[in-house]
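User: Let's play a game. I give you a shape written as tokens, and you guess the letters that built it. Ready? Here's round one.
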């Protein structure tokens, strides 16, 4: 505040308010006046008896106002100062004018107004200082005194300040010089000022002591110099370098005048300030309770950094006013000398004044002022008025000591041969005038009298009769008033030397006339010269030496104290500067934050408008799509010919995905074969072209345009937020009330507005997790919101550690999922935000809490960081998150999975009663060891033919961690058939089937031999990597995508793997028979197995989207739909039906356990895998590599690429040989079921159960072979009948 508030110094109300705060006055209680009048304030304070300082820290602030006012007055006093117009405030000081013609008059008027206003405040402070002890105590602080003196110093010395460092350097030089021995400095020089050679004594030709002025030069004695001060008769006279230049004044104070070098103070404000400071000093002298002259000491040490000359000038100026004020105070109230405490303080001040004169710190008439003051005091002490006073001898002795020192200083000044004799005469007249106090009995300083007599004797020897006469008169007074001292003066013990005649001669001096005395003096001049020049003069020399030493030590201490003060001041200024810099930086940051907040609010408003439009557009697109889709209320009557289809991920019974969805695309994309030239207009899409179907300016474009500016960065950093919790999802009424009370809450909740608007009305957020949703080869970062009623998955949002929800592209990469970034880097693509088909960047998927069916722990890239959730509507989601959060989220999700009474509500149906009754779909429990009861019961059910081969394989894949959502861990099914040439399929012939006891790499003898040799040769090398049979895998993302290449979205996944184009037509999957030949016999790098779609989805075999796959190079044959075996009769449905029949055939049922041993069982790893030629690359096995332990980014990226591209071996479920399936009984009564094809008529009988009103309907085909009766209106099960 001391740095900033003074800028408004001209606001008198502000100074008034600060003064009220200083005294603890409530500003509300102070009357409001139309115009400012200091008398109103003065009377209010006096009337209410306010004087106690409550907030002392405000004092320096008010004083800083005075400094600013002084600077303004100084500017106004300059002739070239231009009055500039300023905006005036009510009751403020108008310091400028806008009219040039009136500038001069206004300048003068402004000076008067400013000076009077500040003068009024200073006088009020002075009054409070005199009358209020508490106010006086707070003003007598060094910081306050420093501030006040700084103002006056600048006004008196006409200086604009000096740096602390410069003065410290000069003071250090002084202290260094003090340490030098035999230092000789000119008497007219100063240890601090310019060199001695540049300063010479300038004689004063003034004939009167009363009107004497002084040269700026000063004596050694005054400066505390180190050179000896001597007389002409001293043996050291030839070494003398200087003389005293201090001069006496007459006893009359009115005859003095200030030096021309001192600035003439004309401003009333500065005059009041002088009075205030002098009052502080005088109060410390005349206050009986003050024993240390504290106020005077504070003022004398409060000088700001400046040159030595400026300091001497100011001290002289100040001492002059203080001495004058003390003299006037004593003359007006002589009773104060009755108080010994005050008299002691006056004696201390006299000593300070004498020291200042001798050391040169009290220049410009300092000696005269001190003489005059001390003479006045001593005259009062010897008057009849105080004849009965009990003044202490110690105080009077100290005053006499100072007075004597002043006389000796003058005597030393008169020793120059060139000095005007009139000055000596004046000095002697002065001594005669004050003979009463000089020769008083209380003046018992023998050394002073000896020195005084020594110089009086020298004056008796003068050739000038006008000098001899007053000297003789003074001797007569000495003989009369101090005969004993005179007698003691001549008692000198010297061999052969008698002084009795001399003593007797001086005693007769009062009876002698002048002529007789001088004749006697001439007759005894030899003896007198011996006494005075050889004996008494030593006292004078010793006195000079003592004074010089004392002055030197005092000055050294003074300089040391000054250095310490400057260092403290330097530290304080550095601290205050640091505070101001910190305040300035924080204020700038604060103002910048405010600007950023306001800018960001505007930016957010633009984002809200654009985001809202996009949200409405996407919602309308979704709604209109539902209204106009096929079989909808306004759907097309006929199917369009150019419609595109994609596989819907919704799962039906037995986890089969059979539903195709029509893809609405405003801008269809033509995928090109690899051998065809690519044009710039029809380039194949890559991962970075996901947004190609969007409008010219999508939400992402707008958001990035608005958020990449410099102001948006500050929003994310400068606004704290809280996590989405219960409080952020309160009811609308409660939230509105809270928002009215606290705008900050409104703003903080606005940061989550995009997420909150996606929630159902009244839903409440419990937990928020940053997740990555895995879908095929795509990975989209987003949020999982665990709410009261629903579970939400929202794409492309991220919650920072401070709880703020931001767009995913605004998050630094180091805060995002590093493994997804490395995975994208390994694939050679960029991590772009996922965009839905409708162009929505923030796709939201929602399920009710009650719809959560099962939760499984999964692995992603062999890391335990994934969860797979299954819902009642057939949807599922695979997400990854932090390991610790994964376990926490798993526990919370599992607690929401209800225990199903209806066994068909789990993804496994009703075949796992033990599993269902546990209520927890824990994958790790199912896959721990072979002896697990749950897994064992599942195998037992398959052995007893209670579940089909397809169901059992789907269960094993799910338990082993295989998922539709991760193409690198896609469910794996075996090749069943080996006959793709016969016109009809004979399922009773063993040759029709493959050898399920051997992997695909060992289906022929030649392949077995070659792969065995490869393993053996690898083992003979020095490669540290474990040996393997196959360099490729039987299940990988490329294998899955190549099988499903004709069906979206797998077409896009395939293109991503291939760099945006289809592979050569000769290498595409176009024939099932050729694929079998390649995998089983012809291609040593192909050992692939099948996927579940080969057993239930005929659409993937047909080029329903009319993709251009190109033509084969050899034959020119165009690649279109998959070529089916002859026994399928070119009907994909027929192929799927017969292929499924083959899977459920007796041969497969009897041998499927061998294949299970290879893929999920004991032949997967270890010696049995080696014997079975079933060893793959070691990285494909679970636990072979720990990605978290790899620190090298390059190595980690390469490892992720291998895992992602090569394929992953399923988790090993069985450690022992899997039991074979029991043979099927032909008796339906024993097996508990009928063969569908042979007993269709029995299913037809079920129509009899359907009510005639259509209120119910029947469903079948469930994995538990149950028949269920549903209510048409509610869709709930009315009755279920198992086998």
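Assistant: Ready! My guess for every position:
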């Amino acid at each position: 505040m001391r740095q900033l508030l003074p800028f408004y110094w001209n606001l008198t109300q502000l100074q008034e308010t600060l003064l009220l705060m200083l005294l603890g006055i409530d500003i509300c209680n102070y009357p409001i006046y139309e115009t400012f009048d200091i008398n109103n304030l003065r009377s209010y304070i006096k009337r209410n008896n306010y004087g106690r300082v409550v907030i002392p820290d405000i004092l320096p602030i008010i004083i800083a106002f005075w400094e600013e006012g002084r600077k303004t007055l100084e500017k106004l006093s300059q002739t070239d100062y231009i009055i500039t117009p300023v905006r005036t405030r009510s009751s403020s000081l108008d310091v400028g004018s806008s009219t040039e013609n009136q500038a001069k008059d206004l300048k003068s008027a402004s000076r008067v107004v400013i000076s009077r206003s500040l003068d009024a405040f200073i006088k009020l402070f002075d009054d409070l200082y005199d009358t209020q002890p508490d106010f006086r105590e707070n003003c007598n602080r060094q910081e306050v005194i420093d501030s006040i003196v700084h103002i006056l110093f600048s006004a008196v010395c006409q200086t604009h300040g000096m740096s602390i460092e410069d003065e410290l350097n000069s003071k250090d030089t002084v202290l260094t010089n003090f340490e030098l021995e035999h230092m000789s400095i000119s008497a007219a020089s100063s240890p601090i000022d310019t060199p001695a050679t540049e300063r010479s004594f300038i004689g004063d030709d003034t004939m009167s002591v009363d009107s004497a002025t002084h040269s700026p030069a000063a004596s050694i004695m005054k400066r505390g110099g180190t050179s000896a001060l001597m007389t002409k008769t001293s043996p050291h006279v030839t070494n003398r370098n200087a003389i005293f230049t201090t001069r006496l004044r007459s006893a009359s104070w009115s005859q003095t005048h200030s030096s021309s070098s001192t600035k003439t103070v004309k401003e009333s404000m500065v005059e009041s300030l002088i009075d205030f400071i002098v009052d502080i000093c005088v109060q410390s002298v005349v206050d009986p309770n003050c024993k240390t002259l504290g106020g005077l000491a504070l003022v004398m040490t409060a000088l700001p950094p400046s040159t030595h000359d400026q300091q001497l000038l100011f001290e002289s100026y100040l001492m002059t006013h203080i001495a004058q004020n003390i003299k006037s105070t004593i003359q007006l109230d002589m009773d104060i000398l009755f108080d010994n405490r005050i008299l002691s303080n006056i004696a201390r001040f006299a000593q300070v004044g004498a020291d200042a004169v001798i050391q040169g710190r009290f220049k410009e008439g300092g000696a005269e002022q001190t003489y005059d003051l001390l003479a006045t005091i001593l005259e009062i002490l010897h008057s009849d008025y105080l004849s009965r006073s009990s003044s202490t001898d110690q105080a009077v002795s100290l005053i006499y000591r100072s007075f004597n020192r002043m006389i000796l200083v003058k005597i030393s000044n008169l020793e120059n041969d060139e000095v005007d004799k009139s000055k000596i005469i004046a000095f002697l007249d002065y001594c005669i005038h004050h003979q009463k106090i000089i020769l008083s009995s209380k003046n018992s300083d023998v050394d002073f009298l000896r020195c005084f007599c020594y110089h009086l004797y020298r004056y008796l020897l003068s050739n000038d009769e006008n000098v001899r006469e007053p000297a003789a008169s003074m001797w007569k007074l000495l003989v009369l008033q101090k005969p004993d001292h005179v007698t003691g003066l001549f008692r000198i013990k010297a061999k052969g030397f008698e002084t009795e005649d001399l003593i007797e001669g001086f005693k007769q001096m009062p009876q002698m006339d002048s002529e007789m005395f001088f004749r006697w003096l001439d007759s005894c001049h030899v003896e007198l010269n011996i006494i005075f020049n050889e004996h008494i003069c030593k006292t004078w020399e010793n006195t000079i030496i003592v004074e010089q030493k004392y002055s030197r030590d005092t000055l050294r201490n003074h300089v040391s104290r000054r250095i310490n003060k400057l260092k403290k001041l330097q530290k304080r200024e550095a601290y205050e500067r640091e505070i101001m810099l910190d305040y300035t930086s924080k204020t700038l940051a604060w103002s910048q934050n405010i600007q950023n907040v306001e800018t960001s609010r505007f930016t957010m408003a633009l984002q809200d408008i654009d985001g809202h439009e996009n949200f409405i557009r996407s919602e309308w697109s979704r709604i209109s799509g539902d209204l106009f889709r096929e079989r909808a209320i306004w759907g097309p009557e006929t199917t369009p010919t150019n419609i595109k289809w994609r596989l819907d991920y919704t799962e039906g019974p037995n986890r089969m995905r059979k539903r195709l969805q029509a893809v609405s695309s405003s801008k269809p994309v033509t995928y090109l074969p690899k051998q065809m030239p690519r044009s710039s207009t029809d380039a194949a899409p890559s991962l970075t072209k996901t947004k190609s179907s969007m409008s010219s300016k999508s939400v992402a474009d707008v958001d990035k345009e608005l958020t990449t500016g410099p102001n948006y960065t500050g929003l994310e950093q400068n606004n704290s937020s809280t996590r989405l919790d219960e409080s952020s999802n309160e009811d609308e009424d409660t939230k509105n009330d809270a928002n009215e009370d606290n705008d900050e809450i409104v703003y903080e909740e606005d940061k989550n507005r995009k997420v909150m608007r996606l929630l159902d009305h009244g839903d409440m957020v419990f937990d928020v997790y940053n997740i990555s949703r895995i879908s095929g080869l795509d990975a989209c970062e987003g949020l999982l919101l665990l709410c009261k009623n629903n579970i939400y998955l929202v794409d492309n949002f991220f919650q920072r550690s401070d709880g703020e929800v931001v767009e995913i592209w605004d998050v630094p990469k180091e805060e995002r999922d590093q493994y997804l970034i490395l995975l994208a880097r390994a694939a050679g693509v960029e991590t772009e935000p996922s965009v839905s088909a409708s162009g929505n960047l923030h796709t939201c998927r929602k399920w009710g809490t009650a719809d959560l069916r099962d939760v499984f722990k999964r692995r992603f890239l062999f890391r335990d960081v994934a969860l797979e959730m299954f819902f009642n509507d057939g949807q599922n989601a695979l997400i990854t998150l932090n390991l610790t959060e994964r376990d926490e989220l798993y526990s919370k999700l599992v607690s929401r999975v209800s225990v199903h009474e209806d066994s068909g509500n789990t993804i496994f149906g009703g075949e796992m009663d033990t599993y269902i009754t546990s209520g927890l779909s824990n994958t790790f429990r199912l896959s721990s060891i072979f002896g697990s009861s749950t897994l064992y019961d599942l195998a037992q059910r398959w052995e007893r033919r209670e579940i089909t081969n397809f169901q059992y394989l789907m269960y094993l894949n799910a338990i082993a961690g295989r998922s539709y959502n991760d193409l690198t861990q896609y469910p794996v099914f075996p090749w069943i058939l080996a006959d793709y040439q016969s016109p009809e399929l004979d399922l009773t012939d063993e040759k029709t089937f493959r050898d399920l006891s051997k992997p695909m790499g060992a289906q022929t003898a030649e392949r077995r031999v070659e792969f065995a040799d490869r393993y053996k040769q690898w083992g003979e090398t020095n490669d540290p990597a474990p040996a393997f049979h196959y360099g490729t895998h039987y299940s990988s993302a490329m294998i899955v995508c190549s099988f499903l290449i004709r069906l979206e979205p797998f077409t896009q996944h395939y293109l991503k793997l291939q760099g945006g184009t289809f592979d050569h037509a000769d290498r595409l999957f176009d024939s099932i028979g050729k694929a079998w030949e390649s995998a089983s016999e012809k291609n040593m790098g192909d050992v692939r197995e099948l996927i579940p779609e080969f057993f239930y989805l005929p659409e993937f075999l047909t080029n329903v989207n009319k993709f251009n796959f190109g033509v084969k190079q050899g034959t020119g044959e165009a690649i279109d739909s998959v070529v089916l075996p002859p026994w399928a009769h070119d009907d994909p449905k027929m192929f799927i039906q017969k292929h499924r029949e083959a899977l459920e055939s007796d041969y497969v049922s009897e041998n499927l356990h061998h294949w299970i041993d290879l893929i999920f069982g004991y032949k997967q790893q270890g010696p049995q895998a080696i014997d079975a030629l079933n060893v793959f690359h070691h990285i494909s096995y679970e636990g072979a590599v720990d990605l978290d332990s790899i620190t090298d980014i390059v190595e980690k990226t390469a490892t992720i690429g291998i895992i992602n591209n090569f394929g992953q071996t399923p988790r090993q479920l069985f450690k022992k040989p899997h039991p074979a399936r029991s043979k099927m009984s032909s008796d339906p009564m024993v097996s508990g079921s009928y063969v569908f094809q042979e007993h269709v008529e029995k299913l037809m009988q079920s129509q009899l159960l359907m009510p005639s009103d259509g209120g119910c309907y029947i469903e079948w085909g469930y994995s538990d072979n149950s028949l269920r009766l549903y209510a048409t209106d509610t869709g709930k099960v009315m009755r279920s009948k198992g086998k």
